[in-house]
Amino acid sequence: MHDSTKVLPRLDAKIARDISLSATQKLMECNKASDIIGTYIVTILEQHSNVLLFPFSRTDIWGFVGKYENKVFSCINTSIPLEEQVFVAAHELYHIWFNGHEELILSKDIEGTEISGTQLNEQKANRFAAEFLVQATLLKAEITMFSIKPEKIGIKTVLQLANSFTVPYRSMVKRLFEIEIITRKQAIELLGQPEQFIDHWRQRLGYGLPHPTKKKKLGNLLDLAMQAFESDLITRDKLDYLLEMVGIEPNQLGLSADVEQYLFPPDGVKGNQEESE
């Protein structure tokens, strides 16, 4: 069984207040102080970094943030479920806005419990992500809309709320505890539920099981490749190679799949290349 007693937040009250204020300030800067963020978080991340989406085979790697030649890059592993991708994107924004250094984000960093050294920084990033994605006022409004009584909150209601905000089930439980909607006893009980039982409720409510999107995006590589092709700077063969890298079929961009074979095509030339005599 999940050791739920070790995954409740234990941040110092002053640190938690400071993070809440920082999240509120950033939401105002993004003009999202009154909106549920959800998957729009990736758009916000794109405004502050070059976003890479790639389905890594190792699902314990959730993402990373790094710099190259003064450019910030963030990467999200699309082999993890969408709601986890949303949470890690907000986690990465904390590192970009407040740390400014490289971070490899592992599943244990999101679900970890130690509050010391570098792990404290990850806990801060997690709390920021929760504050940014699940604003207290909006969460309370959703609870009112669903006519949820705090003492009656169970798996069903947690999943309803998690679905509204596009965040993981366990992240929603922690958020409800952080803003004192549920007690520690309730949180421990909800976090201790077996994953299979939670999945049964997901199916029952019609949400389906969490699944990876497997999406690929290498910054603005696709747009740049199309611009280069349309300007006769690269051949169709090279364009098809770049499309394959990001998992896009030519017909998805309005391109014909039937292409004549090139004979040793140089860049900057479309069509067949006559053999030199």
TrEMBL record:
InterPro entries: IrrE_HExxH, Rad_response_metalloprotease. It comes from the Bacteria. Residues 52-176 form the IrrE N-terminal-like domain. Pfam families: Peptidase_M78. This is IrrE N-terminal-like domain-containing protein.
